Amino acid sequence: MVRAETAPRARHLRYTLWAFTVEGNNSVGALAGAARRDPSRGWQRLDVTAAARRWTAGGARGPLRLLLDCSGCLGRVRLRLGGGQAARPLLRLRLAPPPQRRRRSLDCDAASRGSCCRQTFYVSFRALGWDDWIVAPEGYYANYCRGACAPFQNYHAQVVEAARLERAACCAPVRFSALSLIYFGADANIIKRDLPEMVVEECDCP
Q: How far apart (Å, rounded) are the C-alpha atoms in residues 90 and 129?
C-alpha cells in the first residue's frame, strides 16, 4: 500500500500505479504489480505477490526493492515514500507458519471426547464488515474452551477443593497470546497495535 495525495483540482484524475523490482545494480527489473486509482481511498493497494514469491524462491538473499511509477499523474499526484511512520508505504506479506508439535490434549479434535479442550474458532473481519478499516490481518483464530473437567475421586475431595477455590473447577483458558492489528486511524493514518489476550492458546481445569 502506498499513500497517494492528489491536488484538489485533480480529484477526478485517472492514473495507474506501477511497481517494478530493482536489481542489485539499481537497474529496473520485472513488473511487480499495478493498480488503477481507487478514488475512495488515499491509500492505494498494489498486489506484488508474484514479485514476493520470486524473491522468496530465490532464497531472499537480499532485500526486496521496489520502484514505484505513475502513469497519468501529470505531476499532480504525490506519492508519500517517506516522512512520518503513519504515511510510509506498507508491505504486507502472508507467510505460512512452520508446523508445530502440540500436546494431543490441546485441541478438541485430538482430545478425548467430552474432556476439556481448545476449540478453534475463526473471526473474519470481512464477514463483520470491518475490512474497510482493518488493513491486516483479514481475520484471526480467537478460539474458546469447551468440555468437562475430570471428576474428583470422591465427593468429599470435590467439596473441599471447591471450598478452597470458592468455585468448582471448570474448563477455562490458562494461556493467551496477543493479536497484532494494522488499521486506519484518524486522518487515514495507518496504526499498528498489539492487543493482549485476544487468542486462546491453551485450556485447562484451573
A: 22
The answer to whether 44 and 37 are in contact (CB under 8 A) is yes
Domain of residue 144 covers 117-204
Encoded amino acid at 81, one letter: L
Q: Is the pTM of this model over 0.85?
A: no
Q: Which of 8, 4, 22, 1 has its CA nearest to residue 70?
A: 4
Write out pLDDT tens, residues 139-158.
999 999 998 887 644 445 55
Examine residue 129 and state whether it is found in any structural domain, yes or no: yes
Task: Using only the alpha carbons of the chain, give its radius of gyration.
Answer: 25
pLDDT in tens, 82-94: 666 666 777 777 7
User: Is 142 in contact with 123 (CB distance < 8 Å)?
Assistant: yes
Distance in angstroms (rounded) separating the CA atoms of residues 198 and 125: 14
Q: Indicate whether 127 and 52 sit together in one domain.
A: no
Distance separating alpha carbons of residues 172 and 22, to the nearest angstrom: 51
Amino acid identity of 141?
Y
State the total domains in the chain.
Answer: 2
